[in-house]
Write a structure and sequence with these properties.
The protein is α+β, with helices and mostly antiparallel strands. The protein folds into two domains: 38-103, wza like domain (wza like fold, 2-Layer Sandwich), CATH 3.30.1950; 107-188, Outer membrane lipoprotein wza fold like (Roll), CATH 3.10.560.10. Helix content is 27%, strand content 28%. The protein has four helices and ten strands, in the order H-E-E-E-E-H-E-E-E-H-E-E-H-E. The strands form three sheets. A five-stranded mixed beta sheet has the order 7-6-10-8-9, covered by helices on one side. A hairpin with a 3-residue loop joins strand 3 and strand 4. The longest helix has 27 residues, at 3-29. 24% of the residues are buried.
Length: 189
């Protein structure tokens, strides 16, 4: 990659980041909880059940007094809050559940292979392939950029999604620069 290619790719990355910032604002409200995320959960104005910090278990659940296990994985905070309020009505008149995400440790993607800082990264909403590679320090000189793939697991099935860096860096085939989902693995051979 020449300096001119790098400059073009950097300019394109900046354009994509700005465009994705707007999409990220919309995505934040629709953030779905994951195993490993930390939340603070409480019942407003109930001294017997003060707010407590909870880590969502690997199966996507957490326990809460009186109602037991709450399925949080794959749901938004609003959905979990509503479910908890409905279940708590048996024990508390007009419960108002407060639920806030404090850490998104379960919302991770992995970038592996020929990048400068491979590994796990906590993903902000709206993160795409090009941004993940950038956060991983970019590709090293040995990378086969146009052979990059994203491995996505849906249920028990894994799909391979191609990512041709040169096309995206040239502003073409931008549909390849997909929004990553929790658990995706970006492989840069």
């Amino acid at each position: 990659m020449t300096i001119n290619d790098f400059a073009k790719a950097s300019a394109l990355l900046l354009t994509l980041v700005l465009a994705d910032a707007r999409a990220a604002e919309q995505t934040i409200a629709a953030y779905k909880l994951h195993a490993g995320d930390e939340v603070i959960v409480g019942i407003y104005d109930d001294e017997k059940l003060p707010a407590r910090e909870i880590v969502i278990a690997p199966d996507g659940t957490f326990a809460f007094p009186m109602i037991g296990e709450v399925q949080a994985g794959g749901k938004t905070t609003a959905q979990v809050r509503t479910e908890m309020e409905n279940r708590l009505r048996k024990y508390v008149s007009e419960p108002v559940v407060t639920l806030a995400v404090t850490q998104v440790k379960g919302n991770v993607v992995y970038v592996v292979g020929q990048v400068n800082k491979p590994g796990q990264m906590i993903m902000n909403p709206g993160l795409n392939v090009l941004q993940a590679i950038s956060i991983a320090g970019g590709m090293n000189p040995y990378a086969k950029a146009d052979s990059t793939i994203v491995i996505r697991t849906e249920g028990n099935v894994q799909r391979v999604l191609p990512f041709r860096y040169a096309s995206v860096a040239a502003g073409k085939s931008l549909e390849q620069n997909i929004a990553l989902e929790s658990g995706d693995v970006v492989v840069v051979p």
